[in-house]
Amino acid sequence: MTLGVNIDHVAVLREARRVNAPDILQAMYVAIEAGADQITIHLREDRRHIHDTDAYRIAKLSRIPVNLECSINEEIIDIVCDIKPHRATLVPEKREEVTTEGGLDIASNKERTKKAIHNLTESEISVSLFIDPDITAIDLAKEVGADMVELHTGAYSNIFATLYSNLAASHHRIETLQKDRETLKRMLHRSLDELKTAAEYATGLGLEVAAGHGLNYQNVHNINAITAITELNIGQSIVARSVFTGLDKAVREMKALLNA
């Protein structure tokens, strides 16, 4: 299993004070030295954390592949084509969301998605689509010409956190998951089955399969066990842990879990 380290949250901290600390490039270099297989960043339309200059410098200076997440907005796609990362992962984007809330709705954006993929492919950039673990979405990803899909693990991660952490007792609790433990266990099992089935189906269509969103040191083992998934993109939990351990150790600890 390969690890893409998403360093967006380093830039979130930087932007909180609008100073160049912590340095996003230093975060990239530390993650690489610690064993990251890929650097992942998200160039949002509102530039709330990663900026164009960050993306250009990271793509130029990283000695490992760069996975640049972005919307299908034409202006953004043009910038990504100029940056030329190793891969572009097309994601849905809402200005008001805190983080990406679900998979790309390919069916409602089919022609725009096809055009974005065509332009990226013409620039020799591999394309992945961030989608829910849904068979129809996988079929559409194959139809529009994606090379890869990244399965959204947010539903699984939220159920796991409600079951096995103090999330349910906090002000961040998820109201729709305020259920008894046996119900939550069944939901968790069903979510894992959906991810496994989707990954195997996508692999059968010739698509590479990654996964990500909400994965952390406690819940990653179940996803790591799905052999059809070959890559995980993890950011917030690694950067959060690094506050206490340092980024080098935080990345090494996640790599050790994936190699276990």
Descriptive account of the structure:
- The longest helix is centred in the C-terminal third of the chain and has 24 residues.
- Helices cover 48% and strands 15% of the residues.
- It is of the alpha/beta class and 260 residues long.
- The protein has a single domain, classed as Aldolase class I (TIM Barrel), CATH 3.20.20.70.
- Helix 5 links the parallel strand 4 and strand 5.
Provide the descriptors you would attach to this structure in a database record.
single chain; 260 residues; alpha/beta; TIM Barrel; 8-stranded parallel beta barrel; 11 helices; 48% helix
Please provide a brief summary of the model.
With 260 residues, this protein is of the alpha/beta class. It has helices at 8-17, 24-33, 52-61, 74-83, 110-122, 135-144, 154-164, 181-204, 220-224, 236-245, 247-259; strands at residues 2-6, 38-42, 66-70, 87-90, 126-131, 148-152, 208-212, 231-234.
